[in-house]
Amino acid sequence: MGVESLLVFLIVGAVAGWLAGLIVKGYGLGLVGNIVVGIVGAFIAGWLLPRVGILIGGGWIGAIINATIGAVILLVLIRLVKRA
């Protein structure tokens, strides 16, 4: 993985984590936490969405939307586990 790819990966993860933190109220995790949540969310969305038949376009916007959906799923799961 080149430096450019890593930088894009981190930027998409940070934006997706930040957006997911806004959507799921009360779960802003700071810059590093948002990046981690966004990256893990991207993996979740990359695995889950095609299996349920949801395909979102490519490019920056599509990557951010996919990662945000996955990050929201992750934050909701974290919220459920913390309450249990």
Structural class: mainly alpha
What kind of assembly state do the chains in view correspond to? single chain
Helical content band: over 70%
Number of strands: 0
How many DSSP helices? 3
Along the chain, the helix and strand elements come as HHH
Low-confidence stretches: none
Shape category: globular
Question: What is the CA-atom radius of gyration, in angstroms?
Answer: 12 Å
Distance between the termini: 39 Å
Please report which band the strand proportion falls in: under 5%, 5-15%, 15-25%, 25-35%, 35-45% or over 45%. under 5%
Q: What is the total domain count?
A: 1
Largest sheet: none
Write down the overall mean pLDDT.
Answer: 85
Give the key terms.
single chain; 84 residues; mainly alpha; 3 helices; globular
Describe the protein's architecture and organization.
This protein is mostly helical and 84 residues long. The chain has one domain (14-83). The protein is built from three helices and no strands. Helix 1 packs across helix 2 (30-51), helix 1 packs across helix 3 (59-83) and helix 2 (30-51) crosses helix 3 (59-83).
